Q: What sequence folds into this?
């Protein structure tokens, strides 16, 4: 297959490019900086210097599948009105433009796998959350709803749409784990808030294996929870990371301190989402790697 990837140079995008290339697919990466993308992705990936206009339509007309991983980082900055607009435009706006370009392309890709997040469910305590569960109503949940709605509009053009409800992706070369490691290595790590909230996660390798499956297997459509079947809490996760690093991990990060630092964005760290994968997603991940690998197998 010829696969167009939006967001190919990010933490997940780089791993997905490598996985799809190993599977024999041809990759076209939509990028903002060709020089940086070439250094990150190598010489065998075709580069599209823009994700807009006629060039995008032309690239889509020659692609069998599209994976949309675009989006500014949710965590790290307070959700001021200006920051909210950036988050919305980088997800909803980019996806709407992509779907308009798909509608204009002849022929069109057969499938669009588009990013979303388990934040779609909001803060749900210990409720088990499947793809059929109702949405939440905080800012992140509303953002995910609009994001998914923008992607789902591609169905009107006859395109199969998969919504990638991603959990916390763990890998040693970036993402959430890279931010967690420095304080934990100093023995300053610990659970977030009260530590009882569910911590939905997936290993990077399993995540990209699942995405690769969704674009080739026509049984996948609509939302897919990309989460490991092993459920864990923030406290359990912190303890396991401390053991892996041979460091204590008992110092909690109080909820009030997170709210002082991040404002409303702290809900991303404090919310509890007991998201579970459906049977098809679990089966494909196990085919790829055996039982989904424990995150502690990440080489830290």
A:
């Amino acid at each position: 297959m010829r696969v167009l990837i939006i967001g190919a140079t990010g933490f997940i995008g780089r791993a997905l490019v490598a996985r799809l290339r190993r599977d024999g697919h041809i990759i076209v990466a939509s990028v903002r900086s060709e020089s940086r993308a070439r250094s990150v992705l190598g010489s065998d990936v075709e580069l599209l210097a823009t994700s807009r206009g006629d060039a995008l339509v032309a690239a889509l007309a020659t692609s069998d599948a599209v994976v949309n991983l675009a989006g500014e980082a949710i965590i790290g900055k307070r959700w001021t009105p200006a920051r909210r607009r950036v988050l919305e435009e980088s997800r909803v706006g980019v996806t709407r433009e992509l779907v308009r370009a798909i509608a204009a392309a002849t022929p069109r890709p057969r499938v669009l796998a588009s990013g979303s997040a388990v934040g779609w469910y909001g803060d749900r305590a210990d409720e088990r959350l499947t793809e059929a569960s109702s949405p939440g109503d905080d800012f992140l949940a509303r953002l995910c709803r609009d994001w998914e709605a923008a992607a789902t509009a591609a169905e009107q053009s006859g395109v199969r749409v998969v919504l990638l409800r991603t959990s916390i992706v763990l890998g040693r070369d970036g993402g959430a784990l890279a931010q967690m490691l420095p304080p934990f290595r100093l023995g300053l790590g610990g659970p977030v808030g009260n530590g009882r909230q569910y911590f939905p996660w997936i290993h990077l390798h399993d995540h990209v294996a699942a995405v690769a499956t969704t674009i080739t297997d026509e049984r996948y459509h609509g939302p897919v929870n990309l989460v490991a079947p092993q459920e864990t809490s923030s406290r359990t996760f912190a303890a396991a990371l401390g053991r892996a690093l041979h460091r204590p991990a008992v110092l909690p990060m109080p909820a009030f301190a997170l709210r002082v630092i991040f404002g409303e964005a702290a809900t991303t760290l404090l919310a509890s989402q007991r998201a579970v994968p459906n049977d098809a997603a679990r089966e494909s991940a196990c085919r790829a790697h055996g039982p989904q690998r424990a995150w502690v197998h990440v080489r830290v």
Remarks:
- Confidence is low (pLDDT under 50) at residues 280-300.
